[in-house]
Amino acid sequence: MPQGYFYVKVVSGNEVAYETNCNNNPQHSYCTIRVHPHYGPDMRTISKVEPIQYPISKAYAPGDLIRVYGRIITQAYGSNNQTILNGRDTSFRRVYVNGHSCELINPDTQDFYRMQLNSETSIYGTFHCKPLGTFIGYSNMSFILTNSYGRSVPHKALYQVSGTDTVHMIQTYAEITGISPKVGSAAGGTLLTITGKHFDRSTKVFVGGVPCKITNNSITATSLTCVTGPSPNRKPYRYSGSRGIYMRWWNETSVGSASVGTIFNLHENKSDYQGQHIIQQAGYQWNYDDEFVGSFEGIFVAPQTDNYKFYLKSDDAGRVHFHCGELLENETFAIISSRYRSSYFHSHLQSDWISMKKGQQCYFKAAVVDWHGQGNMYIAAHRQKTTLTAKQSDQVFNEKQRIDFEATKQAEKQKISFNLWNVESGIEEKQTVRVVCTQSCSNSQFRLIYNGMKSTFFSYQVSRSAFESELRSVVGISGQTIKVAKTDITNGKEFVITFKGKGGDYPSITYEVRSNENMQVTVSESVKGVPDFKTFSMKMSSRISHPIGYNASGDVLQTELMKLVSAHCSPILLPSGSSVAALFNYEDGDITEGLAGQIKKDVVPFCGRSSLLNPSYIYKSGTTAHVSWEKHRDFSILTYPKICFAHRGIFKPEIGVTGSFQYTDNEGRPKTQTTTKKLSVSVTMSRSAWTYSCFDFSTLLQVHYPSLVSASIREIYLYQVESFYIDALYIGKNNILPNGVAASDLRVAPALASGEPISNIVVQKMEPLAVYDVTIETYNCGHMVPLFMLAYSPPTTQSSVKIENKWSNGNNGSIYRVVEATPPMRGTFDLMHTSADGFQETLKNIQVNTTVLHFQNLLESLQGFGKAKVEKSGSCHEVDYTIEWLTNGGSKTLLQINTTNILGAPDLVGSVRKISYGGTFHAPIPGDMLRLPYKEPQVEVLVNNIPSLCTGNCQFMFSADRTPMIQSFTPNTGSSGTVVSISGSKFGTPSSANLTVQIGNASCLITSHTDTQLQCQISNGPAGSHHLNVFVHGLGRAAINKNISNQFNLTANLISVHPVTGFTSGGALLNLTGTGFIETYKVYVGANECIVNKTDRFASRHIMCVIPPGTLSTVDVSVKDMNGNIVTTLPSAFTYSNANLPVLTSISPTTSTVIGGSTLNITGRNLGSIISDVVITIAGRVCPIISWTSTYIQCILPSVPHGVHQVNVLVQEIGIADLMQNNISGISYTFSVDQLSPQHGSIHGGSIITISGHGFVNDPTLTVLLGNHSKCNVQSVTSNMIQCKVTSLARTHFINNNGIHPVYGSGFAWNPQVLRINVGDKVVWRWNIQGTPSNGWGIRVFSTAGPDGEEYDNVAFNSGPTKTQNGYYQYIFVQPGTYHAFSGYINGKDKTVWMRGTIHVTEKIQQFPLHVKLRGISAHFLAARAHRQKRSTSCTALNKVPGCVPGNTTWITV
Question: I need a labelling partner for 1056 at 20 to 30 A (CA). Which of 76, 149, 782, 1065 fits?
Fold first, then answer.
C-alpha cells in the first residue's frame, strides 16, 4: 500500500455506507489506518553468503544461504530466542523467496543460521536463511512480522534487471558437476553425459559454443545426454564457459597509474598472489587497506540484439580492454582511469555505443591498483531497448532529451561624453505658486507635485516654513535645494520658490486641489533657470538624479545612477525612533537575519531594491532583528498597535499573532491566554501591483477579546495562498500616513527596462576625459533600456541610439547606445516526434516560454509518448526544456525542432540533444551476462536461458585421435537396397564398437564391419543429395576426407502401380509403390499429369494420384521432379481400355442454387453392377445416391460454390463415366451479385440497400456484411433481389483507467492515453478506482479547450458534474479535430491526482467491401467498395430523407 491514511469500509452482503462509520465520523482515528514506512520492516541489501567477502552478489544456486540486512525490527521467531531485546512486540512469521519458504532455522543445530540486531536497542539487523525449492530463474523475496508490522518493503535499489528485462531481487542458477566423456570426435556426434543439479526441460547445452542436441527423454534433475556438434571451424582466442568472471589479486604489489597494464603480466607463482576466485558480477570491493593490485578476466555475452555502452570506475587507477571481434583476438576498445573515480559518468570512462547481436561475445580483461584504503573495480553495461522505466528499478534509465537554446547574453552599454565644457555664471530658476481664496476656504486644500513626488495637503494659510519644509522633501528626490518667500496678496498667498542649484530649466511644479469650490491655484515660471555647468543631472525615464559635479569620478556617477533604478520612498513610510517597534525594508544595508522568506531583487520592490517573498512569519521575538543587530523582543500591542506594509500577490486575509493576552471574562474575572489568534482583515490584493495596507491590532483583537487588558506579542504571521511579496513593514505607535495621503503618493517607482528591474549599473571613467562607459544589467531579460538623458535641458538631437545636447556657449554632452541589451526569447517553435512504431507527429506553435505543465500535456497528447516530465531551465534569453519519458521505457528517436518562428538574440540557435539514453544500466554487469574464459572448449548448460555454474571440470576436447575418418565410399549414387562400401579408420570392430551409418534420414544397415572397412545396405528414404555419416559409439561422428564429398545421391525407384487398367475418361485413383518418393514429385500417365492427392496417401514408398483422361493405349507411368526431369519410369505400366465404359446420356436439372438440395436425375449405361460400385461427386463434394440402377441414378445435389461444375460418376474405382459422347456439360450453380442500390447511406446505419443478382435463397444462413464487422440485416429475399438494413459502420473504441501513472501506478491513467479514430466512431470510457478513499474521490470525463484545461469546454463530451468510483460513459464523435479528455481532480480538494488523454478524430475516405454469403459460400461478384463522403448541407429534416442527418455528417458510398 502507498504511504497515507486509509479509511475502512465494512462489507457484509451490501456495502455499508461509508459516511456512517465511527458514529458518522468516518475519518476518526478509530476507522483510519495509517500506512507509513516507519511502521514496517524493510530490506536494504540481499546477498549470497559467500566463502569470500562479497557483499552484493544476488545470484546463487538453490539451497545457498542468503544474507538479508535491513529494518528487521526483531530477532524473535517461533520458539527460538524469544527474548525481545529492543522491546518490540513482534516476531518473524515467515520468509519467502519466489513463494517458497526460506528457512531461518538450521535443521542440524536447531538454531538460527544467523539472526542479529545491530544493537540491543536497534531495529536494524541481519538474518540468514536457506530457500527451499529448486526453481531456476528470477525471484523476489519478502518476510512477514507479526502484529502491526506486516510484510517487508524492499528498497528500490534491490530490484535488478535481467538481460530479458525481468525485474527481480535474486537470480538462481543450475550447477554442472561433471561431464563424460571429456574427449570426442572433432566431427561431433559424441554422446555426452552431463551431471549436475536442477536441470529441467528448458535446458540447452553448448559445447565449444556449438549446440549439443539433447537426446529424447534424457533430461532428469541431475543428468542429461546430448549429441555434440562438430568442433568450431576456427578456434577463438578464448572459449566461453561457466557463468561469472575470474578475479585475481596480489597484496604486496603496487604500480603507478601509467603501468596498470603490467598487472596483466603478473604470475600466479608470485609470492603475494592471493588466488583466483570466480565472482558473479563484473565488480568487486577488496576488504584490504594496504596497497595491492587486482585483475578481472571474462567474457561478456550480449543478452539481446541492441546497442551497448560499457563503463568503468575504480579505486584507484584502473583500465579495461574489450575484444569484440569474431574470434575475440583483437582489441576493440579500452577504457582507462588514471586515478580514483567514484562515478561511472565521466566521458573518458565510457565506450562509444556498440551494436551487438544476441549472443555476441566480448572477451575483456581489467586491472586495478589501490594505493591506500580499500580498493574496488566495477564494470557496467548500458543497453538501449527496454519497456521498463526508472520507477521500477534503479538499473533503468528513462530517456531524457533537452531542447537547448543557446545565445550570447549582452548587457546594455551606453557612453556618456562631455566635450568643450565651460563653466558659466548661470541663473537661478524661480517658480511662483499663487493661492487665491475668493470666500472661505476652510474646506479646501492643495498640495504640490514635483518629479512624481507629492507633498501633503496644505491649507492656503500654511506658513512659509511649513511650506518650504514640505516642498524640500518633495524636490529632494532630485537633490535640489530651494528657498521659499511668502507674500500676502488680495484674497490669498503667493509663494516664490527659488531653485538654488543653477542646474538649468527645472520642471514646473504641479499641484492638486481638494474641495476647491473657493480655491484657485496657479504655478508659473517667473525666472527661467540657466545652467552654470558646474554640475549636471542625469535622467532615465521620469527619474532625475542629484546634481553631479562636472568630471566627477565614475564611482560618484555610478552611485547617482543606481538611485534612479531604485524605488524612492518618503521617510514618512520608513520612520525611526522610539515610536517604532520594528521596521523592515529588506535592503542590503538592513538587517535580514532571521527572516522567514526569500529576499528578492528581480521583482520591482515597493521601496529601495529588495522585497521579501513568501514569509511564513514577519516578526519573531528572538529571531528577527533591529538594524542595531539587537534581536526583537515581545512587544505590547497596546503600546504599539499599528502595523503597515506594502504587499503584492495573494495571501489569506488574515494576520496571525502569537502572544500572551490578558483580558476580563464575562464574569469580570481576569484571565491570561497564551495562544495564536488569526485576525481577519479586509485587504485589497493584486498579483501584479503593489498595495499598501495598515491595521490596528487592538481593534482586530476586539473580536476575540472584547475586554482586552494587555497583550504581549511574540510572533506575527501571514498565510500564503499564492506567491506574495511584502516590503516596508512598520510596527509602531502611530499612524504613519498623513490624513488623506496614500502610500503611493509617497513613492516614486524606479526606472525600468521593459518593465523589469535593473540589477546593476557599472560606470568606468575614461580618465582624464569626462567620458563614461556605463554598463547596465537587468533582471528577467529586461531590454529596451531607456537612454540616459541630461536633465533640465531639451536635447538638440535625439534617436533610439543617441541623444545630444548643445549649448550656445559651445558646451556639448551626448549619450550613445553602444550595445543593446539582449532581448528575451519570444515566438514559437515546432516539435517533431517519431513513435516507436514510426508514427510521426508535429506539435506546432509551442510558445518558447510555455509553462512546464502545458508542455507536459502537449507531449502526452502524442501517440506513443506516454507520461512526460518537463523541467525548465536556462534563462529568459536562452530557455531550455529537459523532457523525460516516464512511462515509456528505452531509448527514443531524437526529437526534431523547427525554430523558424523564434525571435531573440541575433546568435540564438536551438537544438535537441540526448542527456540520458533510455535503457537498462547493469552496474555492475551481472553473472548471467558473463562467462569464464578458457583456452579449450567448455560445456555450457542454460536452464531457463540462465547460464549454469560449473563446479567440476567442464572442459571437452575435440580430438583428432578420437575422430573416426571416412577416406572414401562407393558408389555415391543409389537407391534403396544399394550396397555402399566405406573405407576409413577407427571404425572399431563389431565386438568393440556400436556403429551406425546414415544417408540423410535413411539408415544404411551394416553388412560388413572392420576397423577400416564398412559395407551397408541402404534402407528406404527420401531421394535427394544427402550427407553420408558414420557414427561410432564412444567417439562420435566420423570426419570426411577433405578431398572427397560426403554427399550421396539417393534416387527414387518406381516398382509397381495399381490398378493397371482404366477408362479413357480417367478419374480413378492410381497407387504407385516404390522408394525414395518426395513431396515435390509429380506423376505422369503417358504424357498427362496424374494429379497427386497428398491428403489421401503420400510417403517415401507410396504415391496416390487421380488418373487423367487418355486414349486407348498402353502407356508408361513416370515420376518427375519439380523441373520436369524424369526421376524413375515404369514402362508400359498402364492400359487405357473402354471395355464396359460407363456413359452418361443425360442429366437434369442442369441448374441449381449454391445450397443444392434438389434431386439430380442421371441416365446412362454401364453405371455399375451394384450401388456400392458408384460414387458421384460434383466439385469434389459427394452427391448422395437415393436411387440406383445400371442405367438410371438419382442423387441429392450438394452445396457447392457458384460456377458450372462437371458431374463425375466413378464406377468400380476404374474410371468415371464418359461425358463427351453426349455432350454432358455439367450443372450451373448460380449465386452472383450484379449491382446494389443506393450507393449512399449514413455511417451510423439505417439505410436500406437493394442487392440485385441471381441465385438468392431465403435461407437462415444468408448474411450480408459491409466490411468485416458491420452487418446488413436482411429484410426480404427473392431469387434475384435482397433488401437489407445497414447497421452502424462506425467502430467502437474503449478507454479505461488501467494505464500506469508515474507516481500512483496502475489505475490512475487513461489507457490508451492517445487514441486515433474516424468521424462517426464511438468511444466508451470505463473506470473503476475501488480501494481509494471514497470521501471526495472519483472520476468523471469531459472535454477541455486545451491539453491542460480544467473546465468543460461546452463543445464535446461530458459525463456530468458528479464523480463516481465506478463509471461508464460513451460518446459518438461527429466532427473531426483533436479532443482533450480530463478526468477532473480524482482526489477532490487536494487536486494532486488527475488523468488526461487525447482523441484525434479524422475524416478520411474508407473502403468497405460488400460480402454476401449463403451456407458459408461467398457470392460471385466484383466486390463493391465504399468511401465516406460529405453530404451537402441541404439535408434539413430527418423525417424526410431516410438516413439523412444535417450538414457535416459522414456518409458511405457502397
Answer: 1065
Buried b (16+ CB within 10 A) or exposed e, 413-424: bbbbbbeebeee
Task: Report which secondary-structure segment, H or E, holds 1135.
Answer: strand 1126-1136
DSSP letter (8 states) at residue 697: H
Cα–Cα dist 737/456, whole Å: 10
pLDDT of 102 reads 95
Report the Cα 68 to chain-centroid distance in Å: 32
221, three cell numbers: 534433475
Exposure string of 1037-1052, with b = 16+ CB inside 10 Å and e = fewer, is bbbbeeeeebebebeb
- pLDDT attached to residue 458: 87
Q: How far is CA 1035 from CA 728, 981, 994, 1039, in A?
A: 100, 21, 10, 11
In this predicted model, what pLDDT tens digit does every residue of 14-38 receive, in sequence order?
555 666 777 777 777 777 777 766 6
Question: Residue 1267 has what DSSP assignment?
Answer: T
Alpha helices in 459-570 (DSSP H): 464-475, 554-564
Show contacts of 1170-1173: CB within 8 Å, 24+ apart: 1173/1211, 1173/1212
At position 1028, the amino acid (one-letter code) is L
Q: How far apart are CA 1157 and CA 244, in angstroms?
A: 74
What does each C-alpha distance from 1026 to 972, 1047, 1054, 1100, 1189 come to in angstroms? 10, 5, 20, 15, 55
**CA nearest neighbour of 950 among 277, 181, 200, 179:** 179
Cα gap 1086→1426, rounded to integer Å: 52
pLDDT attached to residue 460? 80
pLDDT per position as a tens digit, 266-310? 999 999 999 999 999 999 999 899 999 999 999 999 999 999 999
- 1284 close to 1276: Cβ distance less than 8 angstroms: no
Spatial distance between the Cα atoms of 434 and 1185, rounded to a whole number of angstroms: 135
H-helix or E-strand containing 698?
Answer: helix 697-700
* pLDDT higher than 50, residue 1427: no
Count CA within 13 A, CB hemisphere, residue 1031: 19
Does the structure show a pLDDT above 60 at 1425?
Answer: no
Indicate the range of 698-712, 1087-1101, 1417-1431 predicted with least confidence: 1417-1431
What cell does 1067 get? 478419374
Question: Looking only at Cα atoms, what is the longest distance across the chain?
Answer: 159
For the record, the C-alpha cell of 1108 comes out as 487423367
Query: pLDDT over 90 for what percent of the chain?
Result: 76
Residues 6+ apart with CB under 8 A from 1290: 1243, 1244, 1318, 1320, 1321, 1322, 1372
At residue 11, the pLDDT reads 60
Average pLDDT over residues 1385-1389: 83
Round to whole Å and give the CA distance between 1260 and 1269: 19
Q: What is the pLDDT of residue 1331?
A: 63
Amino acid, res. 355 = S
Neighbouring residues of 679: CB distance < 8 A, sequence distance ≥ 6: 654, 655, 656, 657, 695, 697, 700, 701, 703, 704
Residue 1142 preceded by cis peptide, ω within 30: no
Q: Say if residue 221's pLDDT is above 70.
A: yes
Give exposure, 428-444, as e/b (b: 16+ Cβ within 10 Å). Answer: bbbbbbbbbbeeebeeb
Asked if 683 contacts 654 with a C-beta cutoff of 8 angstroms, the reply is no
Among 299, 287, 298, 292, residue whose Cα is nearest residue 260: 292
Q: Using CA atoms, how far apart are residues 964 and 1029, in angstroms rounded to an integer?
A: 11
Please report which helix (H) or strand (E) contains residue 852, including its range: helix 852-860
Q: Which residues contact 155 (CB under 8 A, 6 or more apart)?
A: 42, 43, 44, 70
b/e burial code for range 1228-1266 (CB count within 10 A of at least 16 → b): ebbbbbeebeeeebbbbbebbbebebbbbbeeeebbbbb
Helices (H) and strands (E) in the chain, counts: 5, 131
Confidence at residue 133, expressed as pLDDT on a 0 to 100 scale: 86
